[in-house]
Amino acid sequence: IINEVSRNKYYKDTQFEINICIGDARDYIKTLSNINIVYQDAFSSDVNKELWTKEYFSDINKILSFKSIITTYSIATPIRLSMSENGLNIYQHILPNNRKATLSSNYKINKFILEKLKTINNMFLNNFWYKTKYKSFLKRLIFNLTHNGGSTRT
Question: Of the candidates 48, 47, 46, 28, which has an alpha carbon nearest to the alpha carbon of residue 38?
């Protein structure tokens, strides 16, 4: 998957479709809809303020399908407040390396579902983002996975 995405900026199988789009995420996100999972990895809010604002999370919330999540490494209170002010529920997750991460959702997550989402979060952090030579290139992108139609957009 990683090789295919890095070569072609695209991957598709029976479960997922991944599209990498290069451009301004604030504009691109407005073209999306019905997204189930957003992996928010937009550098730190000190470096890239515009992708951590209340307004940006409002745009993300507008494209979410029913029962969707946002996952991010950020645990900063202002970021979590921006999510919360947009009606998202906030959850903390401890990663295998003891780092904290944030999961947010547009619905209340029961414990069983939360454990599944933590597994998804770990999959991204351990197998994709941190084990590819394209990390710095890909960190500017937002990964959005959907199961309705199997597409993933960035």
Answer: 28
